[in-house]
UniProtKB/TrEMBL annotation:
It comes from the Bacteria. This is anthranilate synthase. CDD domains: GATase1_Anthranilate_Synthase. Its EC number is 4.1.3.27. GO terms for biological process: L-tryptophan biosynthetic process.
Length: 642
């Protein structure tokens, strides 16, 4: 077995010791050294996971192009899915590792971004106008890459960068160096993507960026940041998007814990934790959660299309994950996967890439997002000698507990706690029995319009007592076996009936109305339903993306969350339609239709399933009482009014 210090000495001397990984996980007083051989595989399902012994067995480098496994759009750069098959695992004390890693100057040349600040700013403007403004989604992450050439042995430069990150960076989920022979990755990622331990699936959405110079962050400025609507809504949106993922990999969806402040050397973020019990193979968990909305956008499938339209090149490992797979002592599978951000990639010939991205939302400004990319790159660039150094810790104090932070300040804690006040308790609390009388055993089908909000909706309807199935709009199921059909949300312009999705969903709604089968339409489904009823559709001047509002819903004020750029309009609260009289809940100012209901059907422009919808469960309970008051169509009994 390779002695750890011998390996580090070889690296410091510029000698290639073979494939290895050095990993410090958050709060650990040591680094894990993994050695072994490297294998390239095609799919996540092919990642080796031998069960011959407990502990970590494989470290996978998952590139962004694996998103193709889900059928999502991407620029295919042919970057491989490499796996370090772990043959040796040893621990090195943090102080011991810092002392053994090289501390020489890292020299680079020809450093510069592939996209200039001005060009990136223009891209931001196009995405805000052409994508968010036209209903293609709520937020999108567009990246740019700094390129340079390292002088001298790249592995020694990466080891020096690792040492500096261990000393200067803080708050990282993983600080790591991975060497496969064909590439080197070194970085300090702040964000866990997904982990599985003891059957508990955990995700960690992080968003909002507070920039500082490395000195003590200004308390008043931090409090302003924590109350900034743009920063608050940005975190809410990625929280919603990761709850969608948890709905697919955890048996009862995810429970929300937080928010917390994550402080790093050059900036601070806000974060939540999501947790839920699951039983999927960890490779399937990886597949179902490709990739984090914090590095792609939402809704996920269309975010990938937007990225492919606006980015010049493939992302390589940026926005992918490192994934450490293994088994615990009881034989259960384990997974720990940080997102590959704040990471540099070096080639054997010294080519250096540092990709960074900014999250674009309706409040974004071009200048602000340009500055955010520079701030996010600062830590790893400083470690590589390409920026001002963050304050360095004394090597003798490596691994000791940090001094008290602003996260301990009572006003900071209060500002964070206040973010939960308007949110849906369904996702924040332990869930008890909420089933409505008469719904148990009745069946609902949710038709997905390319927005996996439908997964969260399925958990809510299930909690209310329904048995729920989902299908893709491209592969619809026969509706005769269901008491209720939900035509769900999705991106796009509902007026464009040349779009195959719009045409198919409108045809489905027309058939449901004609046959009288109980129908609930949500967001895009609501817009298409309103169009069928003869109401005009209108593109909003300012998108309602990630926007919570207090609105009237059939006589009761409800707090609900919107993700829409289009709305139906009406100038009266009741309209006559070919399908009978329809009652509307409208905006008093502009006539925007928030909700509608008629004989056997209803529609809502907002998302009752969103974490932004504090009153979402109450709205659903009321609508189910309206829709399922008649005897069941499938012979399961009679629903109560709830």
């Amino acid at each position: 077995m390779t002695r750890p210090l011998d390996l580090l000495a070889a690296v410091a001397d510029g000698v290639d010791p073979g494939p290895f990984a050095l990993v410090r996980r958050e709060g650990a007083d040591h680094l894990d050294l993994f050695t072994g051989t490297v294998r390239t595989v095609d799919r996540l399902a092919d990642i080796p996971l031998p069960d011959d012994a407990p502990g970590p067995r494989t470290l996978a480098l998952v590139p962004y192009r694996q998103i193709g496994e889900r059928g999502f759009a991407h620029v295919d750069d042919r970057v491989p899915l490499e796996c370090l098959l772990i043959a040796g695992h040893q621990r090195i004390g943090l102080a011991e590792a810092v002392a053994a890693l090289p501390d020489a100057a890292v020299v680079t040349r020809d450093a510069g971004f592939d996209i200039s600040d001005d060009e990136y700013a223009r891209t931001v403007g196009r995405v805000l106008d052409e994508e968010i403004g036209r209903g293609e989604g709520a937020n999108f992450v567009i990246h740019r890459t700094l390129h340079a050439t390292v002088q001298g042995p790249p592995l020694a430069a990466a080891a020096t960068a690792l040492r500096r990150l261990l000393l200067a960076e803080r708050g990282a989920y993983w600080t790591f160096l991975v060497h496969t022979g064909d590439r080197i990755l070194v970085g300090a990622s702040p964000e866990r993507h997904v982990s599985v331990d003891d059957g508990l699936v955990t995700m960690n959405p992080i968003s909002g960026t507070f920039r500082h110079t490395g000195a003590a962050a200004d308390r008043d400025a931090l409090l302003r940041f924590l109350r900034d609507p743009k920063e608050v809504e940005e975190l809410y949106m990625v929280l919603d998007e990761e709850l969608k993922m948890m709905a697919c990999v955890a048996e009862h969806g995810g429970q929300v814990v937080g928010p917390y402040l994550k402080e790093m050397a050059h900036l601070a973020h806000t974060e939540y934790l999501l947790a839920g019990r699951g039983s999927l193979d960890v490779r399937e968990v990886l597949r179902e959660t490709m990739f984090a909305p914090t590095v792609t956008g939402s809704p996920m499938e269309n975010a990938c299309r937007v990225i492919a339209r606006h980015e010049r090149t493939g992302r390589r490992y940026y926005a992918g994950v490192l994934a450490l797979l293994g088994h615990d002592t009881a034989g259960r599978q384990t997974l720990d996967a940080p997102i590959l951000i704040r990471t540099a990639e070096l080639s054997p010939t010294g080519g250096l890439r540092v990709p960074v991205g900014a999250t674009l939302v309706r409040h974004s400004t071009a200048a602000g997002e340009v500055a955010e990319t520079h701030a996010k790159a600062a830590g790893v660039l400083a470690a590589l000698g390409l920026g001002p150094d963050a304050p360095r810790a004394d090597p003798a104090t490596a691994g000791r507990e940090p001094a008290p932070s602003l996260a301990d300040d009572p006003e900071v804690r209060a500002a964070l706690a206040a973010r939960n006040a308007p949110l849906a308790r369904f996702w924040l609390d332990q869930r008890g029995a909420t089933a409505l009388p008469g719904l148990t055993g009745r069946r609902a089908l949710i038709v997905d319009g390319e927005d996996t909000f439908t997964g969260m909706l399925a958990h809510q309807l299930g909690a209310l007592g329904l048995t729920v199935a989902r299908c893709d709009w491209r592969r619809p199921e026969p509706v005769a076996a269901y008491d209720l059909v939900v035509v769900g949300p999705g991106p796009g312009d509902p007026r464009n009936l040349a779009d195959p999705k719009m045409a198919a969903l409108r045809e489905l709604l027309a058939d449901l109305l004609a046959t009288g089968r109980p129908t609930l339409a949500v967001c895009l489904g609501h817009q298409l339903l309103a169009g069928l009823l003869g109401l005009p559709l209108h593109r909003r001047e300012a998108p309602y993306q990630g926007l919570p509002r207090d609105i009237p819903v059939f006589g009761t004020t409800r707090r609900v969350g919107f993700y829409a750029s289009f709305t139906a309009l009406a100038d009266a609260d009741r309209v006559a339609t070919p399908y009978g009289p329809v009652e509307l809940s409208r905006d008093a100012g502009d006539g925007a239709v928030h909700a509608l209901r008629g004989p056997g059907f209803a529609g809502v422009q907002f998302h009752p399933e969103s974490v932004l919808s504090r009153d979402g469960m109450a709205v659903l309970a009321d609508l189910l009482g309206h829709l399922l008051e008649r005897p069941a169509l499938t012979g399961h009994g009679r629903a109560g009014r709830g």
